[in-house]
Design a protein that fits this description.
Elements lengths: L1 H16 L6 H8 L18 E4 L6 E4 L1 H9 L14 H8 L4 H6 L12 H5 L18 E2 L1 E6 H6 L3 E7 L6 E10 H8 L7 E6 L4 E5 L22 E2 L14 E2 L13 E2 L8 E6 L2 E2 L20 E3 L38 E7 L5 E2 L8 H6 L1 E6 L6 E3 L4 E4 L5 E5 L11 E7 L29 E4 L2 E2 L8 H8 L3 E9 L17 E5 L9 E10 L2 E4 L3 E5 L5
Parallel strand pairs: 3-16, 6-10, 15-17, 19-28
Antiparallel strand pairs: 1-2, 4-17, 4-27, 5-6, 6-12, 7-8, 7-15, 9-11, 12-13, 12-14, 18-20, 20-25, 21-24, 21-26, 22-24, 23-24, 26-27, 26-28
Bound molecules: calcium ion (3 copies).
């Protein structure tokens, strides 16, 4: 489940974690050996990421903690800036002696002021939360996500388009990019109806917003290429003066240029679209890596690049930095420099807005490990299990034996097992979290129904219902009942099970709550389905139990 995800993401951080004989990480690992390999075992524990505006380009980028630190300290050349890279937990650690004793001394503090002590965040289950980040706390859950690999993207319908990539100052070019239409990819990932935009994150920290729908206000400095629908058909612009082969600023060498003349309409089957490109001119995009100056190496843009066509069709304009602007197409600050809004080596797509109560995946630390593995994660406003019954607001639900039913979810790899976790809450704020798995999950290729003699559900009940648990603790935890439904074993369908064949699209999973609930009490419930490449959360529904003797 989610912990696997973070383990994957954190690997590239480790590589940079112990630089300069770092003793701080050793202190943390020694003080909390069970934190090794968690998301806290990283620079982000004490250092903050953030928005950094490059003074030379005025371009603002969202950087993970490592790159943010590198950027504002000039790769360590300005040690006076180190203090500004610390988050509140890092500052408390520094102020208390910067040693193991300091870690213990600040355990009871709430460094980031989110209402949870540092040690409560470190010990939060199933995942620790950052004691230095107020936006991460034990009440929030990681938003739904799906992870796709390159071969899965290759298996989806591919869209190919010849277009101009117009840059501000790096040189322009025409080329044929092909890949998955972003709108289709988001649909495949289960984007919800209330989503309004996505933000894509590149491995080097750059991010770019894309509204789903275009609008009349989507112009000017805040213009962002849109996801849904087509872009205006383009016209081919060629001039010998602009041709790089003649010392110009536009590269016309891509094979797609052959036979085209200035002024020709550019026909694209299916129209120009915002795509997640996998190939350029029929070749896989070269995976990105950082060069010696910590910038994405020239010529690398893969394995996936978001390629937006121009909304305002125009010619390749001269580089803004060129001294000679007395040319056929001088630099035009109002031109659609679509290449600058294109994101290379994208590893994360965030679908916004995030559903209530959910928090970001660790996207600031997602990066080149995903590039190397050819993976991309889509997270946020994605459809999870749908809660079927009891319907939201149902009253008079029996205190014992209440059955909860939800629709099944599928992993990115449909044959993979799904483990469901059901959570109850009385206040919709604090939910139990599970530390126990009852059994390994079986394959979810059939229809499940609790109570049927043909299907079995195993329950693990984690909670503190026992006698002897201190009352205060029971008040906090005991009201929550957590059922981990795993090992949903399919038995033979037999002869008469017409609606239970494999491959059904509306299958549901049911679980009975084998515990008496409080009388006359409103409970909120939600379900999470976890697979090896997916983590999908339902919305929240409520029901109210009946009176004492029911
Ligand atoms: Ca805190
Ligand atoms: Ca926190
Ligand atoms: Ca240009």
């Amino acid at each position: 489940m989610a912990s696997l995800f973070f383990t994957i993401l954190i690997l590239p951080v480790w590589a940079a974690y112990n630089h300069n004989g770092d003793t701080d990480s050793v202190n943390f690992r020694t003080a909390y050996p069970y934190m090794v390999g968690t998301k806290l075992d990283s620079c982000t524990l004490c250092h903050k990421g953030g928005n950094y505006t490059d003074p030379s380009t005025s371009k603002t980028t969202t950087l993970g903690s490592c790159q943010y630190c590198h950027a504002i300290t000039g790769y360590g050349s300005d040690p006076t800036q180190f203090i500004n890279t610390l988050n509140p937990y890092g500052r408390d650690y520094l102020n208390n002696g910067r040693n193991q004793a300091a870690l213990k001394a600040i355990e009871s503090l709430d460094s980031d002021g989110d209402g949870f002590s540092n040690i409560a965040e470190i010990n939060s289950k199933p995942l620790p939360t950052y004691p230095g980040d107020p936006n991460d706390n034990p009440n929030k859950v990681v938003a739904s996500y799906r992870i796709y690999n390159k071969s899965q993207l290759q298996a989806m319908p591919q869209h190919s388009q010849f277009l101009l990539m117009n840059t501000t100052k790096s040189g322009d070019y025409y080329a044929t990019y092909s890949g998955v239409i972003m709108q289709d990819l988001l649909k495949t990932a289960g984007i919800t109806a209330n989503a309004t935009q996505i933000t894509v994150y590149a491995a080097d920290g750059f991010s770019q917003r894309h509204p789903l729908e275009d609008s009349s206000s989507n112009v000017g400095k805040t213009y962002a290429p849109y996801v849904n629908g087509t872009y205006p058909a383009a016209t081919y612009y060629y001039d010998p003066q602009a041709d790089k082969a003649n010392g110009g600023w536009c590269d016309y060498s891509s094979p797609g240029n052959a036979g085209r003349k200035n002024g020709d309409p550019i026909a694209v089957n299916g129209g120009l679209r915002l795509i997640l490109a996998l190939q350029i001119d029929g070749k896989d995009l070269v995976p990105g890596y950082l060069d010696a100056t910590n910038k994405l190496a020239s010529g690398t843009e893969g394995p996936f690049r978001v390629v937006p066509p121009q909304k305002i069709v125009g010619p390749p304009d001269q580089a803004s930095t060129a001294t000679n602007q007395n040319v056929i197409w001088p630099y035009d600050s109002n031109a659609d420099h679509n290449a600058g809004l294109s994101s290379k080596s994208v590893t994360v797509i965030k679908v916004e807005p995030l559903p209530a109560g959910t928090t970001d995946i660790n996207y600031l630390e997602a990066g080149f490990n995903y590039v190397d593995q050819g993976k991309i994660v889509i997270y946020g406003a994605l459809q999870g299990p749908t809660l079927v019954s009891p319907a939201d607001g149902t009253t008079n639900v029996p205190r014992t034996g209440a059955v909860l039913t939800w629709t099944k979810t599928e992993d990115t790899v449909p044959s993979e097992p799904i483990t469901y976790t059901v959570q109850l809450s009385k206040d919709k704020v604090t939910w139990t979290t599970s530390t126990t798995k009852v059994a390994s999950a079986d394959r979810l290729s059939g229809t499940f129904f609790a109570g049927s003699s043909k299907y079995f559900l195993f329950f693990g009940i984690i909670g503190m219902f026992g006698v002897g648990v201190p009352r205060r603790t029971r008040k906090f935890l005991g009201i929550f009942l957590l059922i981990t439904v795993t090992g949903a074993v399919i038995s033979s369908c037999g002869g008469g099970g017409g609606g239970t064949s494999t491959g059904g699209t509306s299958s549901t999973v049911s679980a009975a709550i084998p515990q008496s609930l409080d009388a006359n009490t409103t409970y909120y419930w939600r379900v999470t389905g976890d697979g090896p490449n997916s983590h999908l959360i339902s919305g929240v529904s409520s029901f109210t139990t009946g009176i004492m003797w029911k």
